Amino acid sequence: MSENINLTLKVWRQNGPDDKGHLGTYKAKDISTDMSFLEMLDVVNEQLTVEGKDPIAFDHDCREGICGMCGTVVNGLAHGPEPATTLCQLHMRHFKDGDTIVIEPWRARPFKIIRDLVVDRSSFDDIIQAGGYVSVNTGQAPEANSIPISQEKAELAMDAAACIGCGACAAACPNASAMLFVSAKISQLALLPQGRPEAARRALGMAKAMDECGFGNCSNERECEAVCPKEIKITNIARFNREFLKASFVSPQA
Amino acid sequence: MMIYPAIHYTMGGLWVDYNLMSTIPGLFVLGEANFSDHGSNRLGASALMQGLADGYFVIPYTIGGYLAGTVLPEVNEAHPAFEDSTKLVNEGIDKLLSIKGDRTVDDFHKELGHILWEYGGMSRNEIGMLKAKELIPELREQFWENVMVTGSPGEFNQTLERAGRVADFLEFSELLVEDGVSREESCGCHFNEAFQTEEHEAQRDDDSCSYVAAWEFRGTGKAPALHKEPLVFENVELAQRSYK
Ligand code: FES
């Protein structure tokens, strides 16, 4: 049954990367427990706008858990308290009347704050551009049945491909490591025959881009796996390490 | 859990030729941004299907022909087209911020959504659609007189971003309804209550409505021009839809 609850929000406000920033306190009144977390923020923003105040900036797009745009740290947890759930899919029924909710942006050095809860995740794009793709020749596409792929491989690749690139992994990691993200992108391609020709270049290129962006390395904390809304497994990180090692031995680029 | 029918997509997109090139030479439109693969209804998972079909099977064939036959001179931001569009966008932004009205962007967005839901939704009729055609321009006028957009230009301003989108929706939704009125049949997702079989299935009029409507924008508030692209079926026979 839906009911209405009242909440106190403590929200990180920061006008830009150079602003100092502070936690602002806001009341969220009469919030239906059927609302999603982002809809609750919409209500608060509508109120702030009417009062002539600056609404809280936050990222979102699909609001159905598939695009990777949303995400903040809610009460210390990336994407909030529910496992395997993006922030947009988190509903207010998981909160109680009178609760205080602390909302902060992703924290990792490469994720510079743009405004309030919005961070710049273009470092992830840089990493993808360094190899997270398969080159396709112009002309005829290959006949589909000429490339057999085992069911087991296809499933593993599919699981890795579930990564939506939201950045929760890096935000939750004490080292601000992006290894879970990068390893998912590497795995989804390395597991398939179409990804093999460029596998070595990809592993080396993406690892280098990741370092250059300023992400830390993995020390098996597994915080990433715990907060990942798509339940990407850290076995992907092991696969990335193997790919990287293999590539370092054989590639002249290493 | 409450389950109810809802509109999940609007079909259509930018017009493209068989090579996926739009009316602007050199501008190719792929995936669901173009109109080409959906009919009057959209099937589930079509986004992936069309992304793959266009990206993996069509464009590798067709773009080569364009590139080979084209001289591409160097372009830079000094080109007048850049200046013109920068000016146009800045004017739009200044306009939105200068109105300082007392209704929020979301409030307008919701009202527009309500109009479309009521009068241009899954089950429509002419009276309703004509009503929407009256209501939308009125709302658009109110928007440009009374919208409240906070913040300033040149900063990260999500309210301004939303205002720009709602301004677009206010233009486009009128076309959506116009298209619905003009098609005197029921077909796929366009269910005009006046055209149904005894079993309440969509009743098409294949003799006069077997075409894709490509609408030409002629300015806000001006009647768009309809270009009909005939649909010719060589290998399938058109039949009545039945879920039985
Ligand atoms: S808004 Fe797209 S995943 Fe949350």
Would you mind describing this structure in some detail?
The complex is a heterodimer of chains A (about 250) and B (about 240). Chain A is of the alpha+beta class. Chain A has helices spanning about 35-50, 120-130, 150-160, 170, 180-190, 200-215, 225, 235-250, and strands spanning about 5-15, 20-30, 75, 75-80, 100-105, 115, 120. Chain A has two domains: about 5-115, Ubiquitin-like (UB roll), CATH 3.10.20.30; about 120-250, Alpha-helical ferredoxin (Fumarate Reductase Iron-sulfur Protein, Chain B, domain 2), CATH 1.10.1060.10. In chain A, the strands form two sheets. Chain A has a five-stranded mixed sheet. Chain A has a two-stranded antiparallel sheet with strand order 6-7. In chain A, helix 2 (about 120-130) runs antiparallel to helix 6, helix 5 packs across helix 8 (about 235-250) and helix 6 (about 200-215) packs across helix 8. Chain A starts with a strand and ends with a helix. Chain B has about 240 residues and is mainly alpha-helical. Chain B has two domains: about 1-70, no CATH class; about 80-210, Fumarate reductase/succinate dehydrogenase flavoprotein-like, C-terminal domain (Methane Monooxygenase Hydroxylase, Chain G, domain 1), CATH 1.20.58. Helix content of chain B is about 45%, strand content about 10%. Chain B has helices spanning about 45-70, 80-100, 105-120, 125-145, 160-180, 205-210, and strands at about 105, 125, 145-150, 190, 210-215, 225-230. In chain B, the strands form three sheets. Chain B has a two-stranded parallel ribbon with strand order 1-3. In chain B, helix 4 (about 125-145) packs antiparallel against helix 5 (about 160-180). The interface of A and B includes residues 50, 115, 118 and 136 of A. Bound molecules: FE2/S2 (inorganic) cluster. FE2/S2 (inorganic) cluster binds near residues 60, 61, 68, 70 and 88 of chain A. FE2/S2 (inorganic) cluster binds next to loops of chain A.
